[in-house]
Amino acid sequence: MSPGPGLEPGTAASTTAAFAHGRALNPYTISGRAPSSQTSLIFDIKLQEPDCAVNTHQPVLPARSIHPYRIPLSGPAAVPTQPPVPCQLYSSSWSVFQPDIIISASEGYLWYLQVKLPPTVHLLQDKGKLMDFLLRRRDCKMVIISVCSQVLDCQEKGSLPVVATVFDKLNQVYKEYLEAEQSYTAVMESGPSRGAAAQKRPVRTQAVIDQSDMYTHVLSSFTERKDVSHKFIIAVLMEYIRSLNQYQITVQHYLYELVIKTLVQNNLFYMLHQFLQYHVLSDSKPLACLLLSLESTYPPAHQLSLDMLKRLSTANDEIVEVLLSKQQVLGALRFIRSVGGHDNVSARKFLDAARQTGDQMLFYTVFRSFQQRNQRLRGNPSFNPGEHCEEHVVHFKQLFGEQALMKPSTV
Questions:
Q1: Which residues contact 97 (CB under 8 A, 6 or more apart)?
Q2: Cross-referenced PANTHER family, in alphabetical order (predicted)?
């Protein structure tokens, strides 16, 4: 068959019927008009067969018929209750025009041919090829999400590689969009130039399935399923994270939180400890806070959280708050000194925490510590009015007497 308008060389069709061809939302359709055929074949010329020396193309899907259409009767002879008349599909009176137009001269109708994507989920068993096909279509987002849900329904031994393939194909497109967006932003920030004027903002198509989409529509509900093995659930979550890392996409903290919650719900604390110890789950403040909330269920989570906050090196305030909330006032004081923040920290915050413990000697130690700081910084142990420590000074006098206060002359 010689290529016609819009049909690229190498598109092959195995049939003896007469043809009409056109494009419907990018895939190429070839429709047979012979009475014995009356079906359409769908090709995608961008889908390449691996290790194929000859540039040939096979139908993406099994032959399918165009959806039936009924023509309502009109005119003087029409009866209101008379049902619409079925349209003769693949009629010899049809004329097909690029890209997706069908005209029936005998019936006086013009149609646009469209491909219904949802049925392809069950028609194409090769999920890798199905993803390649869907990622090039418009209005594909929810169909792609349904494919993800479908592959997660299968818990057979060989299903995880299929899941990995689907995730990789999604994240490849996701990464390409992120790089295009970053490139555009860099050009715009560089200032007005000839290149900036020519640069167009990348369009986010429905093929871009980001982490939020996967979390909201697929993974969150998947982890709540009771009919799925928790081992498979964890394997799927880690596979998605693995794919994101492979394409150097920063993993959002809510995905890590989903992993931790799944591990905790199934009492897999040893695995949680290993994931954190070997940095399978990346450090972040939200993750550290989540670990803190697990302390009542898993006591080592408290120290794991502190270790994570220390590694972040930008979470000193959070570490102090955590220690104070656990009434580890001296520990918080030692930590803030170790990072060089003692001179700027709020005295009242520490005095409040020390007083709440009810330990008088602890309060004395903390109070004296800040008096010594004041003496060193200002040459006077008294607190400034802006520090709002008046009530603690009164409390100190009530407990230990005014003579216990440091005097300005004390070094």
A1: 22, 103
A2: COLON CANCER-ASSOCIATED PROTEIN MIC1, REGULATOR OF MON1-CCZ1 COMPLEX
Token pair 């949802």 is found at 118
CB 261 within 8 A of CB 234: no
Alpha-carbon distances of 173 from 77, 132, 201, rounded to whole Å: 56, 10, 16
Please answer whether residues 21 and 113 qualify as being in contact, where contact means their C-beta atoms are separated by less than 8 angstroms: no
d(CA 346, CA 364): 17
179-198 pLDDT tens trace: 999 998 888 887 666 555 56
Paired tokens of 348: 């009242």
81 CB-contact burial (10 Å; exposed 0-12 / middle 13-18 / buried 19+): exposed
CA distances (Å), origin 310, targets 8, 146, 227, 231? 60, 41, 39, 31
- DSSP string of 278-316? TTSSPP-HHHHHHHHHTTTT-TTHHHHHHHHHHHHSS-H
Model confidence pLDDT, tens digit, residues 147-178: 999 999 876 656 899 999 999 999 999 999 99
- The label of the residue with tokens 């700081």 reads 373
